[in-house]
Predict the structure.
Amino acid sequence: MIARYALGLLSVAALLAASSGAARARPFTARDLVTLDRLSDPVVSPDGGTVAFELRATDLGHNRGVHSVRLLSLATPGAVPTVLAGADAQAEQPHWSADGRAVYVLSGRGGSDQVWRLPLAGGPPVQVTHLPVDVGAFRPSPDGHGMVVSLAVFPDTDSPDDTRARLDGIHVAKSTGMVFDRLFVRHWDTYADGTRNHLFALALDGSGVATGRPVPLMRGLDGDTPAKPFGDEGDFTISPDGRIVLFSVRVAGRGEPWSTNYDIYRSPIDGSAAPRDLTASNPAWDAEPLVSPDGTRLAYRAMTRPGFEADRYGVMVMDLARGTTREIDPHWDRSAGSLLWSKDGRHLYVTAEELGQNRLFALDAGSGAANPHPAALTDQGHVSAAVLAGADIVYARDALDSPSQLWRVPQAGGTPVQLTHVDADRLAGVELAAARQFAFKGWNGETVHGYVVRPDGYQQGHTYPVAFLIHGGPQGSFGNDWSYRWNPQFYAGLGYAAVMIDFHGSTGYGQAFTDSISGHWGDRPLEDLQKGWAAALAQFPFLDGGHACALGASYGGYMINWIAGVWNAPWKCLVVHDGVFDDRMMGFSTDELWFAEWEHGGPGHTPWSDPVAYERYNPADHVAAWRVPQLVIHGGHDYRIPLEQGLGAFDALQRRGIDSRLLIFPDENHWVLKPANSLQWHAVVAGWLQSHIDR
């Protein structure tokens, strides 16, 4: 039987709000979460006086996000952001023109995604590109004379016009069959159509409009820049003099699904020479090329172990004239997240996870001096983007109790200052629950961290039911950040406390800690979860351990299926979203095969060469011990953990006669992205928890 739910929350939140009186703040709801504006992509004008950023609003009526660009004066304390004229809808990826008189954006207002120029002085938007295929990402040249765009083209032609003609021919054909002779067949949430994201250079005329034919910069390369599915303009850059383009690409051929070997290439922007591989000596991942302000050095991030997507990213600097490379602070046991040069080239500003935070650090890039722990410019919260603004750095920061906002901090260090208060009006009168980090001794006697989030209306001396949230990855973290998918404030708003454990395998605690989960999915992290649960109950008396449900997605979903058979005693119910049910079949059917192989022994450890590794911690082998009511959720376009994994778990639950429910989103991938679907997800989860945890 298929149960259908209204899009409102079926929760105790409304009852709490009605009974508490007008004086008390109301609980945070799923509708709040879905409809909040989302700030991202800050970029500062060439004179350092204005920051432009992207703001995504939610149009519930049309079930979509609406992207606009806002401007904020950095010279005026307390300034309020204003909408950039012409960028009030469908405007993304803002970039300043070299003269600071306009902002370039990506927009679909003309029927396809093209680059538009929006003058600050006013006037109508000007379409910059008129290409036959969509622009996926772009960068204007620092000298103002050109632009580099990424287009999905067939690499055997490297021609946007030929690609358009071929795609049109495919669309008019009546047959729908697709023939493959190599992998990928499908990746993340789409089937491979033979196109590649390739870079092209465009000349700009005096008015900033593209002229002439696009010049291919990746001729002969069978790879994608930006990388699929999550790459962006950070995968390529242009030298300060506008003459050289550098980009990261994986040229893998038939081995692409089991390779993580991305290299940095350089190509003249005029296409006069073939691309040249600068990092061929490293068989692992090289990412995010960034040229120093004087054009002499290249910074980038590099892993060292082939086939591993969660290896530590070291910060590398290459002398472009000599070709020599050195690592900055090789003894710093953190993985670099993003890079930013100081104007004088003496420092690199780097984001990195550390003990449940994602901080901004300053590394000495000039002297070569080693520093095992670089200076942190930020403390609490999660820094997601950073840009120079004169003597300051402007960055986006979010936290467990705050969506993303813009802040600024002096490059020399100092007290950060908040610049924006996006959605302050919507959140006025809304209670965002307090969070507290705690620590305990986990597997091998090592320190493990976690967070507890108090429920809405918390009162000392009372006890509250618990949502035990398990993060995915598995090399991930439930740290001090804001999420639009798994947000503990939602559970707090329902009246539940939330507990999250950063078990062995989590990121931000040193690479050895992250490595420890590979080959040990079912024992070491489980021990941490068990000890973390006991420690949370001991340290926070308001947690009612007798009324608790465990929830998780991806690897967290795997762990839900695993504990259903090996640690089900504490739980009133379980929720698994896009989780692994049959680990061995997962090794055959997932899209990115390097992940399954590494997690079961390393490259080459396939389900047929090492079947024992895939059965060692296989949830499907413990179904006979399942007994706890379970909600199973899965996306029909999830090719990372295919739909059959969720169907298999639900079939097992139903055949065993266990109280269970299945929610399928035929149009979603590994995540739930559409606003209406997100509201339904939260409504179904809330209803499931209340029907089991509260009884």
User: Anything to note?
Assistant: Residues 1-22 have pLDDT under 50 and may be disordered. The CA atoms of residues 444 and 524 lie 9 Å apart. The first strand starts at residue 26 and ends at 27.
